[in-house]
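Notes from the 1:1 (GR / supervisor)

We went over the backlog. Supervisor wanted to see one worked example end to end before approving the batch request, so GR pasted a single chain during the call. The sequence is below; no edits were made to it. Supervisor asked that the structure be written out right there so they could see what the output format looks like.
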Amino acid sequence: MSTQLTPQMQAQLDQLRDIHLPQPIGWWPLAPGWWALIALVCALLVAALVWTWMRRRSARFLALRELEAISPERQDEFLTQISSLLRRVARRRSAGADVLTGAAWSAFLMEGKYGMSGTSAALLATGPYGPPANENFEPEALRAETATWIRRHG
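Structure output shown during the call:
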């Protein structure tokens, strides 16, 4: 076999063009997988915003905001407002909880793992209706314990 090209073969080779590489692949338009990922991220973002919006309008959140607004300046009004707030929260948990009085109301507040302490529950059961059981109670400690109760039971 000879390696020499005939003039006819050489003419045919001269008619061939060089190899042209395709254009580099651009980032646009995006592949369908990227569109699905963008849609998923948007859906998660909307779901998080809706969840936050609904949580802020929940009864528990509103009760905690109302608790923060109660002023501890006058002891009798402070106890009355906290007891009233707790009764409204308790009504959402148990149908007849808001009509409990005295020892039954105190026992209801102390129920469960996250119940109130005995002194706070007794103070809320008797304080709004007569002389306070404990003259030296800490309003902010009672507010913190009430907030914990609302978070756990509201």
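Supervisor's comment: Residues 37 and 95 are 46 Å apart (CA to CA).
Batch request approved.
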